[in-house]
Amino acid sequence: MSASGSNLKVAILGFGTVGSSVARILCDLKPQGIELTHIYNRNISRKLADWVPCEVQWTEEVEDILASNVDVIIELVGGLDPAGSWVRRALEAGKSAVTANKKLIAFHGIELEKLARSKGGHLLYGAAVAGGIPVIPGLQQGLAGDQVMRIEGILNGTCNFILSKMEDGAEFGDVLQEAQALGYAEVDPTEDVDGYDARAKLVILSRLALRADLDPNQIPCRSIRDVSAIDFAYARELSCTIRQISRAEIRGANLATGDVLASVGPMLVPKASPLAWSRGTENTVLVGGKYGGDVVFSGHGAGGHPTAVAVVSDVISIAHGSRAVDLPSRKTTIGGEFLLRHSIRFVVNDQPGIIAEIALALAEQGINIHAIFQKPGFGKGNLPFVVTVEPCANSALKRALARIGAMKCLLEKPFHLQILEPEETAG
Amino acid sequence: MSASGSNLKVAILGFGTVGSSVARILCDLKPQGIELTHIYNRNISRKLADWVPCEVQWTEEVEDILASNVDVIIELVGGLDPAGSWVRRALEAGKSAVTANKKLIAFHGIELEKLARSKGGHLLYGAAVAGGIPVIPGLQQGLAGDQVMRIEGILNGTCNFILSKMEDGAEFGDVLQEAQALGYAEVDPTEDVDGYDARAKLVILSRLALRADLDPNQIPCRSIRDVSAIDFAYARELSCTIRQISRAEIRGANLATGDVLASVGPMLVPKASPLAWSRGTENTVLVGGKYGGDVVFSGHGAGGHPTAVAVVSDVISIAHGSRAVDLPSRKTTIGGEFLLRHSIRFVVNDQPGIIAEIALALAEQGINIHAIFQKPGFGKGNLPFVVTVEPCANSALKRALARIGAMKCLLEKPFHLQILEPEETAG
């Protein structure tokens, strides 16, 4: 209930898939002390739903809501503008805001939380990362007593859908089309497949888990577009699959003394890792604590209903006077690269001396070959094979591959993937 | 910080494994606004640790702490008495309490939470279920907006250690001894292996997730003592493993209209289920929501450090003025039995007519046989085989087995296990 003891008045901004799920859950469950009063959308006449109680005001004017006595706005419009300015104005007016807007929180979350606190309101964003999986409340409440040293996650359901379909033999382009037809991918899939969506979520998790405030633009992102079905065949040889992995880690005893490493992109993931288990649009987040060891969260990371659960849970928290634990974070620059094993796939017109030349180029960068193998069934004129190398920096490998790329026998650009190593940070 | 704005004064009651881990984390991380002031234990001279700051008072007298200006007691003594009366007295004095005591919360949690609220204090018990895995804050904060229809969990690390070792071929008695030597099992392992520890945790989770307040004594518990290595061999034939599963479920649209079913005991778990993945002392909890679908939490459920993380997180929540969302529950009686497929292992002196007699006894109870199979390598004089049956109530199967048990050819009592079916409650 609001400070006055009366019901908490709630407005939904954006009546798309998530917004209508939020309204549906509020109407079905009728959580105590919460009253849906307004729904905003453009072209509202297209949106009117007969199952919404008639007391609810439908409006095309955000100003009506910002000027009203609504206690909480639920921002589900997305993007930085105008959604960000609506959230800011609501907080300035002493209202609380609940949002699923990962981009807004990644870029402006710290400033907006400060604003909320200074005006006596709340800013909650449990739906911004991993939809219906309570990772954010888990970090703010349940793991606040640990010192989290690393996070690894499958944070983008679209990429996971595509890659788990490719694991069954399909090619990227075909699955992307299927994902678009199913509504899992946008017409322009850049945000998802090139890693920017996951990167915004990684920034939010790094802030809460590692207490490191990273600049999204500093985090290297690699697209999953270049992964092909043959890479899954070689992944199987290594007892791995391929997933888009977002990871951030403190190297050293803690944030004050250690570097933070972070990246987003396709990786080889050992089948024994919990990160290899999620199928379809599921999300998984692994949190490695110094004291508590590894904790894994998994479930439906997107979709109207799961995301709406996170939104409604945040509204209930506010209604119950529950405050998010304020976890102080510090501005942190990324201080290096992960040193990881890599797998490199070559496709060549086979001839003597190829391995020698590759080995030399790797050796020049201080990179040791671990294994070389090829799947049977290909002719010498179009021969794919894979080289795995011992832990090295991505940048060193790229320098070696730049030199190797000039080799005439290559039929395709070499394609490399980092291998996610199982690590145990438990105390 | 406490109401007065000064540091929150915290006392640890019980300086065993968890208590000393709590002190260690408080001393290492120095969470803002929290001050460890007292440590209570019997025979305190055995316990004194030189890394604890000298300002901390060590005492053998709980009364000193209850009479002091301590804001929060951390109760890690366990059991109903005297720990329960200490918590009650602290709450009556307006202090807050953080506890890992599942038994106390299972039997008296509702009354104690009411007391805490009436006196302006808090009662938090994130460590009471699944140690370092933030299931309780996940339910109270992140899933409060869903209607949870079922929970399934591996809630007892000792049983999971024993059963995952048996999966690798060991027999119960040997692994129990190993678990005792490692400190994972008590000298009297009854609470763990017979299911009472898991049952108390299931009661707590049912209250928070299903909003059903169950009487622990009503929940059927079955021991894992009778599981033997051969059962794992047959489980593999069914693509299953065996785990101690605690489950509770609402049958019907919601708690007001549906029955609650609950049980604790060994079950066949399909290898594809997340509940089959936890090894060693790990815990896993699956929460099935009407709107958000299945969410899985897994990690270290016990041990000093993981449990201490949950305790310290609760203390931090109190220090930050964060309140647990009060999820109203209602007194609920268990209204029936799970209808599940079963697997029954027989060991016989083989002779004609055995299957006919078993089939008849099952048919009399309306139970259909699904499959019959046996592993090679056994003689006719000591032949184990397995019968799987279509979904039926445990009680009906028990009646059939009572009749079958009188058959002269049986060399052992038939041993039956329920099969955990994958179910999807997502909306």
UniProtKB/TrEMBL annotation, chains A, B:
Transmembrane segments: none annotated. The active site is at K201 (proton donor). Keywords: Amino-acid biosynthesis, Methionine biosynthesis, NADP, Oxidoreductase, Threonine biosynthesis. PROSITE patterns: ACT, HOMOSER_DHGENASE. It is an enzyme of class 1 (oxidoreductase). SUPFAM superfamilies: ACT-like (SSF55021), Glyceraldehyde-3-phosphate dehydrogenase-like, C-terminal domain (SSF55347), NAD(P)-binding Rossmann-fold domains (SSF51735). It comes from the Bacteria. Residues 343-427 form the ACT domain. NADP(+) binds at L13, G14, F15, G16, T17, V18, G19, S20. Belongs to the homoserine dehydrogenase family. This is Homoserine dehydrogenase. It comes from Silvibacterium bohemicum.
